[in-house]
Prior knowledge:
alpha+beta, Aspartate Aminotransferase, domain 1, Aminopeptidase, 4 domains, transferase activity
Amino acid sequence: MAKIKHNNFIDTVDEIFAGAKKEGVLHLYAEDEYLNGRTIQIKGKEMFHFGTTGYLGLEQDSRLKEAAIEAIQKYGTQFPLSKSYISNPLYAALEAKIETMYGIPPIITKNSTLGHMAVIPTAVRDEDGVILDHQVHWSVQNACQLLKLRGIPVEMIRHSNMDMLEHKIKQLSSKCNKIWYMADGVYSMFGDYAPIAELMELSKKYPQLHLYFDDVHGMSWKGKNGTGYVLSVLKEIPENVMIMGTLSKTFGASGATFICSDERLREKIKNFGGPLTFSAQLEPASVAAAIASADIHLSPEITILQTELEEKIDYFNELLSKTSLPIIVQNNSPVFFLGTAMPITTYKLVQNLFHEGFFVNPAIYPAVPVKNTGIRITLSRHNQKEEIKALVEAMEKLLPLALAETANSLHKIRSAFGLNETNHQQEKETNESSLLLNYETSIKNIDKNIWDPLLGKQSTFDWEGLCYLENAFTNSDCAENNWDFHYYLIKDKNNIPIVATFFTHGLWKDDMLAAESISLQLEETRKQNPLYLTSKVLSMGCLFTEGNHCFINKTHPLAEEAIMLLLEQAETLYHKLNADMLVLRDFDEDIQLNRIFHNQGYIKINMPDSCVVKNLEWDNMNEFSNTLSSRSKRHFAEEVLPFEQAFDIVIKKELTAIETQQVYQLYKNVKGNNLAINTFTYPENVFSEMTNHPSWEFILLYLKKKEEEQDENRVVGVLFCYKNMGHTYVPSLIGMDYAYAREFQIYRQLLYQAIKRAKELAFKKIDFGFSATFEKKKLGATIIPKVAYIQARDNFSMELMGTLQNEDKTHSGT
Length: 814
């Protein structure tokens, strides 16, 4: 069967960045004729610069500039040759000075990204294992992709979760020699630190544990000789620790430096460390600037510079402590994060801060979870106390305005980031509205004559279908198939419906739409731990249904207001349930909805295509065949029609207990063979409930026995079909005996029999659901692209699945 189309991560990020660019907060250009580090000019506006990562301001130091200019005059703009052959005349001096700083000979790389690419694949052996902090810098994660090609296990833990780390160490200890934990010294978004003391204690408990730190954001402003945050804690480098530092950012020059105490490993990396062998070396100007900066780092001046920055950080923290501004992590690093939760609030606040004369960085997905959007503020020695104070005053003034303009609040921000409420006065939220909200937890509490005209005639979520779903999926003994139902109906004051939908709360597998190769790996783990990598999800619709789960009266003047009210109610419920993910599905592409959902903190993903048969205006099989393309007509004549005679086709409205067990096993055959859409296996009561419901029927294929056979005809295929309001026929689930599936084309025959049955009952369309779109299209289905909008508490599951090997294997879909 054809593999379903999965979401393209690059397309998602591209759309988010394009939106931020359109709002004028990303991909900007500085217009200054001269840069001084304190201010920056954008679109004719001079602003105080609170977005740099040059925390000590050394990039503007005259000594570094003069050294770089002199090096160009002496040696040219570059030294175009690999360092494996010969280094430019300044390299030896730089390496000697960095060695004096650290007390260990360094390896100099073009930048930290190439440094990780050189070091990690060389240092990590085939018999080792790797554990990533899920917030470790992208460049580290990217370098570890090379390890997976060698069969090296690459695991991931939640950010700085020491219990989870210890659990992973125990899992890997019996099959790995060394176990590498990779983390940032200082994390670039929230400015928080790696728990180094705890990690060192853990390494004493587990001698296999080795630590690899990307400390580029901890360099220069911290530590003796500016050697970084990690060394400021460790004091010296143990044998089981490696550090990647930087010569750019706060160091003020360019390049990166790798430090470890294993001399033999250093030489191995230097001899053949990928990019070190084949990439260009640092330009003479960069090396000269780094030498000048190293001289400062080796002098008492570095302590003076660090102290000046520390005083400004303390001053900023003092000012912040007197406000209710939602700073997410309180620390003494130069990186601060002001949470806004929703992208639209970030855009508005950044725009207003720009207007007031302050440049800050928007922090958006995928650098942070989409609902953890915010503003990254960085301090440097260039910033003066008067503009630091002015920035705090501006944020205090502008944040409430941005919140009001975007229907946001401090309470919502604190909920999104899991923060406790402060002692500051709580906001007063108005309940005045021109809309009427009806919320229920059972479809039985909603008038059938109101629900069905809005959401009937599709899938299995008309009023009767929802009664069935509530009976089948509530009060279940298995957690994965026990759902809560939540219904929303929003009207105007004249009782005209504007929005209607339903949500379910239950467990989803995180890999539901991931590549099948990933699901194959995870299912092996789930044999011992059935709920491994699953999440509590509040989802529009439910896993049993597909289609337009949300009715929106788009012509109503209050439509957008009603949508915003729905989102507010859904998010309130999301936090109340403490769900891990909130999902809005399955929508057609809509520019207006895309804008609303994105601005409220949702990312768009592609869902599997929906398949609908709309043309049932034919009277016989010849006429049906003529509705198909010439290629599909040939397929129908050769692969479908000839096999019909192999079966006795029986349609039943009820099944006996034995028959229910038989068809349930056929369903489980398909479920176990199909990971394209990886959901939980439904329990048997879901099928026995069908037998008790008047809107369900079963198309059964009995393989005709041969004359010499004594056994009864064998049931080898089944379709579980829902009849929606005499309008839409819905083949919801399928079951097959794979011993006969290919020989007798059972899957195609079942699709065909569903079409015949829908015509016989005079239905207007068939909702064929998603997956196997190629097969359904050959029988006349129209393929309709669908999208969903999601927000999650964090990106952990997505990034964890990204560490799994992604072999291109395909499996049958239904």
